[in-house]
Automatic annotation (TrEMBL):
Protein name: N-acetyltransferase domain-containing protein
Protein species of origin: Blastomyces percursus
Molecular function GO terms recorded: acyltransferase activity, transferring groups other than amino-acyl groups
Superkingdom of the source species: Eukaryota
Pfam family, one: Acetyltransf_7
Keywords linked to the UniProt accession: Acyltransferase, Transferase
All copies of domain N-acetyltransferase, residue ranges: 69-226
Organism classification: Eukaryota, Fungi, Dikarya, Ascomycota, Pezizomycotina
Length: 234
């Protein structure tokens, strides 16, 4: 039976009947990634393996986060299952989380540190005031990116990144932003990850002292999406 690899965004409103299965899928994939590539994360396997289901559920339902999962679903030839059913029934091979948006200063002073509003904001989990994004630069941060070892070299990482970028583009444009600015931190020694992001249009940014607190050296990267006055982007 043929299979199809796809990227699915997890709905932020989830039926309770699916919550247990999705939390287990999330937990299994995330803990594997933490255990197999610990240097790629700021968190640890020892820490997150102690989380109970409520923590995983809270992450999945964070109103400020957009979570994208890649999986391989079987093509049955019959009625197509829903995306939520596919998320529940199939192993998660990779994931990326996009946090935002938040408005950056109009003078461009923080355009090279688009993650700054997320480090400082005390209300990061609170609903966004949409009016703050209109006519401003919309900042996003991509994090928790991973593809499990057996699923690498198949273009899944690129699919995850590109899907998250397009989601940020569409949302920022719909809110009337002048442009979208997506930032991320990548492990300095992970050349494959840097090349992946560069292939998706991300560029190296100046070092941010906020990164010095991390155990593993990181490099800062960003992608700026300019919107034309007629609503199109470039």
């Amino acid at each position: 039976m043929a299979s199809l690899t796809k990227v699915i965004r997890i709905p932020q409103t989830l039926l309770s009947s699916y919550m247990g299965a999705l939390c287990q899928r999330y937990k299994t994939a995330r803990l594997r990634a933490l255990k197999e590539d610990p240097q790629a994360f700021s968190s640890t396997y020892d820490k997150e393996s102690q989380f109970d289901d409520s923590v995983w559920a809270e992450r999945l339902q964070n109103p400020q986060a957009k979570t994208f999962v890649t999986l391989r679903a079987e093509e049955t030839g019959g009625a197509e299952s829903s995306e939520i059913e596919q998320l529940s029934a199939n192993e998660w091979l990779g994931m990326i989380v996009l946090l935002g948006p938040r408005a950056l200063p109009t003078d461009g002073s923080e355009s090279k540190t688009p993650w700054k509003p997320f480090l400082a904001a005390s209300d990061i989990d609170q609903p966004l005031d949409l009016a703050t994004i209109a006519d401003s630069e919309a900042a996003y941060v991509a994090f928790s990116m991973f593809v499990l070892a057996e699923a690498r070299r198949q273009g899944l990482g690129r699919k995850l990144v590109q899907t998250s970028v397009e989601a940020a583009r569409a949302e920022a444009m719909s809110m009337g932003a002048t442009r979208a600015n997506i930032g991320l931190w990548a492990e300095a020694q992970n050349e494959a990850a840097r090349k992946l992001y560069e292939g998706c249009g991300f560029r190296l940014l100046p070092h941010d002292p906020a990164m010095d607190a991390l155990e593993n050296p990181q490099v800062a990267m960003g992608k700026l999406l300019e919107f034309k006055s007629d609503g199109d982007s470039e």
